[in-house]
Every structure is written in C-alpha cells, then in structure tokens.
Design brief:
The complex is a heterodimer.
Chain A (H helix, E strand, L loop, with lengths): L3 E4 L2 E4 L5 E7 L5 E7 L6 E7 L2 E4 L7 E4 L5 E6 L8 E8 L9 E2 L3 E5 L1
Parallel strand pairs in A: 2-11
Antiparallel strand pairs in A: 1-3, 3-8, 4-5, 4-9, 5-6, 7-8, 9-10, 9-11
Chain B lengths: L2 E5 L2 E5 L4 E8 L5 E7 L6 E6 L5 E4 L2 E5 L3 E6 L8 E12 L2 E6 L3 E6 L1
Parallel strand pairs in B: 2-11
Antiparallel strand pairs in B: 1-3, 3-8, 4-5, 4-9, 6-7, 7-8, 9-10, 9-11
The chains are: A mainly beta, B mainly beta.
Amino acid sequence: DAMVIQNPRYQVTQFGKPVTLSCSQTLNHNVMYWYQQKSSQAPKLLFHYYDKDFNNEADTPDNFQSRRPNTSFCFLDIRSPGLGDAAMYLCATSASGTSTDTQYFGPGTRLTVL
Amino acid sequence: EDQVTQSPEALRLQEGESSSLNCSYTVSGLRGLFWYRQDPGKGPEFLFTLYSAGEEKEKERLKATLTKKESFLHITAPKPEDSATYLCAVQARASGGSYIPTFGRGTSLIVHP
C-alpha cells in the first residue's frame, strides 16, 4: 500500500542535543509538509516543500531546519531542542496541482526532550 | 487571516446516540474543506473533502455537509470504535505553489458502550 512513513515513532533527546526526524513516502507526491502538534492543539505548519522549493512559515523558529534530498524523503532537523519543542511531529504529503490537494499524514514522531 | 473553529471541544455519547460536530470557518476563497480522524498518538487519517456549499459526502456512519460558513460532521448511531479526535481543515491560503490548509483544534469524541 502507498503510504507515508515516519521514523522513529518515538524519539527521546536531551536539552540542546540535535535531533533528526525522517519521513518517506511511496505516494510519489510532489509536496511534503512538516507539522508540529502539541496536546489538544491544531497541527501547526512549520514548512513545506513544493518539489525542491522550500517554503518556511514566518513564525517557524530558526532552530528548525529541513532537507529534501529527493522526492521520496524529507528530514526535520532540530538544532538545539528546548523543552518547549516536545511535541508530536507530523509529516504529510499532497499531489499539488490536482483538484484536491488532499494531505496524507504519516503516523507521527513523538519527541520527548529531557 | 483564515480562521477555523470547531465545536464542541469534547463530546461524550452513548453508543447509538447520534450527534453532529461543527466546523465554522472564515476564509477568503475556499478551495476545499477537509475532515480528518485522529486517534491518540497517531497521525490524522483523511475522511472527506468538500468543495462547495450544498455538497454532502458519506462514509459508513459519518456524513459531512458544507455551507458557505460551516461544515457539519454527522455521526449516526455511533459505536465505541468511532471514539477519536475529529479535525477540520480549510484550504484557501496559497504559498509556494501549493494551497495550505488551516486546521481547527478538533473535537474529541468519546462513545461509551
């Protein structure tokens, strides 16, 4: 089945220790998104790639970076995690240019910062 | 600025007790409205896309409707396995060649047996 895969599902890191979360997709979608979701809150868009073009949200902290080496993979780098960065990180994809732009989500990575 | 408000924040139902969840929105130029189901500790699962006022879509016990200002997710004769958070998102804002959805905070539904 075509899908969005995130690894790891659970990540524990120490305050200030860099961490990388990964996302891969078999849907061949050209757009990939990273969201941050805290408990009982709406998913908050951090940035997205339209093909190779990176689009940062205005309020995304500089502490968050992303890479997309090819169509299938996308990475979220948190350079110096703080306690406030503990959250669920969701990767999503969509086939922009179609009539729907429906987003399909991965299972998420739960990040704990000690 | 696009705004999406979902109500109620939480809803408890008895099995078989039908009800509706509301998603009201304020956007400029709606391209689509999405409903997702999110189970605890998991990513959102796509349910429906609605494009224009008057449109309706159904899937098992769920039926989504759309007006010019709001959408309803009707749950008929719910079962305990319908317990989840239901997220609404509206798609209007263009950014970098794509249209970015704005999400509501969701309605947490618990169905008791």
